[in-house]
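ok, trying the design again with the full structure, not the truncated one.
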């Protein structure tokens, strides 16, 4: 059960669902469901963020829609057979937060100690790039690195949540490549300036393609992460190696600021970061979640 936002060949936004490697138009599936149930007042669903805000982005509700419709009709005519364009899974998050140094081997490779509490910083939402989009490296910016990360999408308003309840706040999981202008970041840190700009160039946040409901994944702390550049493995680790697991990150952040439905937390990158350049193809794969592919220019 993998959901995604896409545009039809006519550039109409839709929600898609991947079931057993076949992709269906979930927006249409939802319309069939509404007709069967007589839910004529319910809104049409064109974006995953609407599902999250209506509290129907969960395994049970999605399964109920599929099973109900299947009792009355075939899904064959809502198979997506046209050329589609993927969109980011969340187009308008209120914020994107990233965790720094959350894998000890990665902290080491940049000459840092493992932190005693989470380090978090922001990445601007305007930096997002969908699956199959092109990462655009600005001129004269020096070294730019890839960073594969498990990303958490928040499902509920979250403030001062205890660690033990934090998992209830998660709508689902996706993949982020936290592209970083490393030379610029290093210079800014040396000058004791914030490193926001090196993380926030347009296209520096490839994300998606799929958003997987949290219940489908269950435990997020045992997922294999693999990043390849031109087919060659550069980063390979497991979310079991996080210093601060997802629940602790959510609890910690929520003591500082309110997290809202659709907010994105990129949970940190493992070791193996390396430069990317024009002409590269970057493939970020997280077990059970999918593969995010982007070219570089
Ligand atoms: Zn990162």
């Amino acid at each position: 059960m993998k959901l995604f936002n896409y545009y039809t060949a006519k550039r109409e936004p839709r929600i898609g669902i991947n079931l057993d490697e076949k992709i269906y138009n979930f927006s249409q599936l939802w319309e069939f469901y509404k007709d069967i149930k007589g839910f004529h007042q319910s809104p049409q669903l064109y974006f995953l963020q609407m599902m999250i805000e209506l509290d129907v982005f969960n395994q049970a509700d999605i399964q109920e829609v599929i099973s109900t419709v299947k009792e009355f009709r075939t899904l064959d005519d809502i198979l997506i057979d046209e050329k589609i364009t993927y969109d980011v899974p969340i187009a308008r998050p209120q914020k994107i937060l990233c965790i720094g140094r959350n894998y000890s081997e990665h902290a080491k490779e940049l000459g840092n100690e493992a932190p005693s509490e989470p380090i978090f910083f922001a990445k601007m939402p305007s930096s997002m790039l969908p699956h199959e989009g092109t990462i655009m490296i600005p001129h004269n910016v020096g070294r730019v690195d890839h960073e594969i990360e498990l990303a958490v999408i928040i499902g509920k308003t979250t403030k001062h949540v205890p660690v033990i309840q934090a998992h209830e706040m998660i709508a689902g999981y996706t993949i982020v490549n936290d592209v970083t202008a490393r030379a610029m970041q290093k210079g800014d840190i040396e000058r004791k300036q914030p490193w926001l700009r090196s993380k926030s160039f347009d296209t520096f946040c490839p994300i998606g393609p799929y958003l997987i409901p949290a219940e489908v994944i269950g435990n997020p702390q045992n997922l294999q992460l693999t990043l390849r550049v031109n087919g060659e493995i550069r980063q390979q680790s497991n979310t079991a190696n996080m210093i601060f697991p997802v629940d602790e990150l959510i609890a910690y952040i929520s003591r500082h600021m309110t997290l809202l439905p659709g907010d994105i937390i990129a949970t940190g990158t493992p070791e193996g970061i390396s430069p990317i350049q024009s002409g590269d193809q970057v493939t970020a794969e997280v077990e059970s979640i999918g593969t995010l592919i982007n070219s570089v220019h």
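Keeping the full-length input from now on. The mean pLDDT is 96.
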